[in-house]
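Narrative of accomplishments. A recurring question from our advisory board has been how the design workflow behaves on a single, concrete structure rather than in aggregate. To address it, we present the structure tokens for one chain from the evaluation set, followed by the sequence designed for it. No filtering or post-editing was applied between the two.
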């Protein structure tokens, strides 16, 4: 068995550091598909349970649930997959054709309105004042990293 050491050095506000560190560990663990007990951060084992930061929108991929202010909302399979894809890939604009390929699994163009309709329905279910999805006119959709969402993993 080999040991891999990854060093990430970022300069952030003291208040942001714990949340950012936890998000980086979660992202890395998901990307390499390792159990949490096999990762070490700063010489200490990553705790099995940690307090989640307050988030208005919580996505639970393992159970395919979305909670808005701790209230579950009903999403279709495609709505959930679209929201999860956008939130797992924040900070960049995703073209409609990319979303069709990644979420719908189709290479051919179904019409740009397909994505637009699903985003509109998703926004309606999430409710006012919480929408993490930004429309970039003529291009696609973007989710800001600081949009008040968290992707929870077991």
């Amino acid at each position: 068995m080999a040991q891999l050491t990854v060093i990430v050095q970022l300069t952030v506000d003291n208040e942001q550091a714990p949340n950012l560190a936890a998000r980086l560990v979660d992202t890395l663990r998901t990307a390499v598909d390792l159990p949490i007990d096999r990762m070490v951060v700063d010489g200490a084992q990553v705790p099995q349970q940690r307090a989640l930061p307050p988030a208005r929108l919580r996505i639970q991929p393992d159970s395919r649930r979305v909670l808005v202010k701790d209230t579950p909302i009903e999403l279709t399979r495609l709505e959930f997959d679209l929201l999860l894809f956008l939130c797992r890939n924040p900070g960049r604009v995703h073209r409609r054709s990319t979303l069709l390929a990644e979420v719908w699994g189709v290479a051919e163009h179904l019409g740009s309105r397909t994505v637009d309709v699903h985003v509109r329905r998703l926004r309606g279910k999430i409710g006012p004042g919480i929408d993490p999805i930004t429309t970039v006119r003529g291009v696609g959709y973007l989710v800001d990293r600081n949009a008040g969402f968290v992707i929870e993993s077991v």
